[in-house]
């Protein structure tokens, strides 16, 4: 999937020096990679044992158009749980194949190139980055990124100034119908995760009078309020979500950014006002279950949506990529000016990819879960 805006590949103007045909000295290097060892099953929880670390030999003998890249950061994301099944349930997502290298969002640096658009030292990103310490990739499938857009925090291209940020910003803008001065209340579930932590801040910046986050620990609640500027936060593990929503949202709920689904979402929708809007972004509480996406709602919740004229439309950022370039530039400016604060949970080493993924699926991360592969 070529999902990154053309902004990423248009940041340099002097990349036309012809490197195609450049002679490179072929060497063999030992590379570590992660393959899919087994599937958890449609109704199973993933475990680190579903992944296997291998060592392979990689030749740096490049063909025209290819580059050798060193991986700096890899991303783990909830959608990857679907890729562990034989059938992802989504036409735009391919399943990972057993005993083959898995892939996802990655950022790295070019170490050698036979691609005219890329040269040694360029930072690049892709949504099909193999989980390898080094890789030979086609330069045309990579997007060059400018570290100045993120003040040198290259991992942000996998989060706040990447697809996660686009999902949060465009989700709020396209489906939230936030209006400055309208005294709206927004609730965000999965609020301490990669997307939710950004969506709540964007809702506040766009004019919501109150933003309430739902998450899974007191530590996360504290971070939402003290670090990110949420009005209040609810720990769904330790309290009555419905009662806490009544306390924190006495005027009802106008906008709901839904990342989790299930009982939490039922509780939120029950307290939504007429004409409200549900931004259906994710349903992580349902990803280990063999149910269609979006998962079916209870009769009671469906009746509430219909009787109160509440919109609940699935949001897919891929449908809005024509707006990505401007949105990424805006996200960059918001992050650099500290109007949006970025939280990350960073694991170290490619050997910890499976552990990081499974931890993220259970809510072990605060903000974006990243794995640092090399300096």
Low-pLDDT stretches are 1-24
Strand count, sense and closure of the main sheet? 7 strands, mixed
Mean pLDDT: 90
Number of helices: 9
Helix content: 10-25%
What are the key terms here?
alpha/beta, 9 helices, seven-stranded mixed beta sheet, 375 residues, six-stranded parallel beta sheet, disordered N terminus, 15 strands, 23% helix, globular
Description:
This protein has helices at residues 80-83, 163-176, 194-206, 218-226, 241-248, 262-270, 299-307, 324-336, 353-361, and strands spanning 28-36, 51-59, 66-75, 103-113, 123-130, 134-138, 143-144, 185-189, 210-215, 232-235, 253-258, 272-280, 311-314, 344-348, 368-372. It is α/β, with parallel strands linked by helices. Residues 1-24 have low confidence and may be disordered.
In short:
This protein is 23% helix and 26% strand. The protein has 9 helices and 15 strands. Helix 6 links the parallel strand 11 (253-258) and strand 12.
Produce the secondary structure layout:
Elements: E1 28-36, E2 51-59, E3 66-75, H1 80-83, E4 103-113, E5 123-130, E6 134-138, E7 143-144, H2 163-176, E8 185-189, H3 194-206, E9 210-215, H4 218-226, E10 232-235, H5 241-248, E11 253-258, H6 262-270, E12 272-280, H7 299-307, E13 311-314, H8 324-336, E14 344-348, H9 353-361, E15 368-372
Helix pairs in contact: 2-3, 2-8
């Amino acid at each position: 999937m070529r999902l990154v805006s053309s902004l990423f590949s248009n940041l340099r103007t002097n990349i036309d020096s012809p490197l195609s045909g450049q002679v490179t000295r072929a060497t063999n290097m030992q590379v570590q990679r992660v393959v899919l060892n087994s599937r958890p099953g449609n109704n199973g929880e993933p475990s680190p044992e579903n992944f296997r670390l291998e060592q392979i030999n990689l030749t740096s003998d490049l063909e025209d158009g290819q580059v050798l890249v060193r991986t700096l950061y890899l991303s783990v994301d909830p959608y990857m749980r679907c890729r562990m099944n034989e059938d992802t349930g989504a036409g735009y997502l391919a399943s990972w194949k057993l005993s083959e290298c898995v892939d996802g969002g990655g950022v790295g640096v070019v170490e050698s190139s036979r691609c005219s658009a890329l040269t040694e030292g360029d930072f690049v990103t892709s949504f099909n980055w193999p989980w390898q310490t080094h890789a030979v990739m086609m330069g045309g499938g990579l997007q060059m990124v400018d570290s100045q857009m993120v003040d040198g925090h290259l991992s942000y291209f996998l989060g706040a100034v990447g697809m996660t940020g686009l999902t949060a910003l465009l989700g709020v803008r396209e489906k939230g119908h936030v209006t400055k001065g309208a005294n709206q209340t927004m609730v965000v579930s999965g609020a301490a995760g990669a997307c939710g932590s950004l969506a709540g801040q964007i809702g506040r910046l766009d004019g919501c009078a109150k933003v309430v986050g739902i998450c899974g620990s007191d530590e996360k609640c504290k971070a939402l309020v003290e670090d990110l500027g949420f009005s209040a936060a609810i720990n769904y593990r330790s309290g009555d979500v419905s009662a806490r929503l009544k306390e924190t949202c006495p005027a009802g709920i106008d906008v709901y950014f839904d990342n989790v689904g299930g009982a939490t979402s039922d509780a939120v929708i029950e307290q939504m006002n007429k004409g409200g809007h549900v931004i259906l972004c994710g349903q992580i509480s349902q990803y280990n279950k063999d149910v269609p996406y979006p998962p079916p709602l209870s009769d009671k919740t469906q009746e509430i949506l219909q009787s109160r004229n509440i919109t609940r439309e699935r949001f897919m950022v891929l449908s809005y990529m024509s707006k990505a370039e401007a949105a990424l530039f805006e996200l960059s400016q918001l992050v650099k000016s500290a109007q949006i604060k970025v939280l990350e949970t960073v694991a170290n080493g490619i050997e910890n990819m499976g552990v990081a993924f499974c931890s993220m699926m259970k809510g072990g991360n605060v903000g974006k879960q990243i794995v640092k592969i090399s300096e």
